[in-house]
Design the sequence.
C-alpha cells in the first residue's frame, strides 16, 4: 500500500513537477534493476527515466495479455514482438578447480625446491 497507494493515482502522478519520476522508480525500480543485473547491462543514469517508462509500459502490456489469457483469448501478443530475443545469461563457470589450482601451485612449489612430503601433506589438506 505504501508503494502503490490506493485508487486512481493519475492525478497525483500528473501533479509531480516535470522531471520528477519518483512514482516510476517506486513502481518499477526493483524489477528494472533485476532485469539490468540479470542481463548484465550497464545503463547510464541519464537513461534511467526512459528505461523505467519502458519497463512500466511492458508490464502493463503483459498484464493486459494475461487478462486476455484468463478470459480464454490466447492469440499471440503482437506487442511482445517489439522485443528482441535475449539470450539468458549463462551461469559463470569457474576457470579452475581446487585440484587444478593445487597442481598449478605444485608446479611452482616444486621449482623452488619443495619436497614430495610437502606436496602430500598439502594435498591432504586441500583436496582430501
Sequence:
Amino acid at each position: 500500500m505504501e508503494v502503490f497507494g490506493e485508487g486512481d493515482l493519475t492525478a497525483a502522478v500528473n501533479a509531480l513537477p516535470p522531471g520528477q519520476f519518483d512514482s516510476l522508480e517506486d513502481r518499477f525500480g526493483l524489477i528494472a534493476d533485476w532485469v539490468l543485473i540479470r542481463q548484465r547491462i550497464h545503463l547510464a543514469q541519464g537513461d534511467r527515466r526512459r528505461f523505467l517508462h519502458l519497463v512500466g509500459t511492458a508490464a502493463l502490456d503483459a498484464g493486459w495479455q494475461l487478462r486476455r489469457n484468463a478470459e480464454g483469448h490466447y492469440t499471440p501478443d503482437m506487442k511482445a514482438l517489439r522485443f528482441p530475443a535475449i539470450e539468458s545469461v549463462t551461469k559463470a563457470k569457474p576457470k579452475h578447480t581446487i585440484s587444478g589450482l593445487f597442481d598449478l601451485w605444485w608446479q611452482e612449489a616444486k621449482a623452488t625446491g619443495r619436497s614430495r612430503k610437502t606436496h602430500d601433506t598439502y594435498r591432504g589438506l586441500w583436496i582430501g
Observations:
- The CA atoms of residues 1 and 31 lie 17 Å apart.
- The radius of gyration is 27 Å.
- The chain has a mean pLDDT of 81.
